[in-house]
Amino acid sequence: MSRVGAVLTALAALMLTAPVAAAEVEPGGWESYSPGFNVQERGCGQVDDLTFRLTCTTASGDQRAERRYVTYTGGSRQFEGYFRITDLPGSRISLKQTFNEATGPFFMLAVERGGRLYAVHGGDTIATGATIGTTVRVNTVHDVGGTHRTYINGSLRHTVAGPSGPYYDKFGAYRTNSGAGTVTVEWSGIRFWRK
């Protein structure tokens, strides 16, 4: 076999074994886009690209390390991201939010020490297994004025109805009212779609 043939064979084998990138969980008519964002660091929050840390154990005050994306007012939006918690002596830390500008936090996905993912408003368990070192895929699909759906590792786990109005997405690490740090969370594979 020629050198070129050997290289092509090796490349073909790599393509067959390479992991396939995830796509939107509710296919059909989505347009990929890249919204702008601002970094928010408050209290003991620290952001280093896609690594988010709360470095203090305080159970009071505004402790956050997040990306806050631009506001959207209508249509349907889908978020996808992967997080991996590398350190969690604390508990009850919000990882992903869909925020209503008129009424405040609308949906908050948080984690407790031990790996339970839950909805802050209502306390519903969304999933388990978000333990130290485990990568978890999160998709949220939001039909403004309709429903907000949360998928964990591709499975629909939570649905809630919501009002119209301007919204924005946030992710990172944020101390909930009943939570405390410390925590380190690494996010990756951030993607957005709209229709």
UniProtKB/TrEMBL annotation:
Top-level taxonomic group: Bacteria
Keywords associated with the record? Signal
Q: Which residues form the signal peptide?
A: 1-23
Instruction: Please give the name of this protein.
Output: Uncharacterized protein
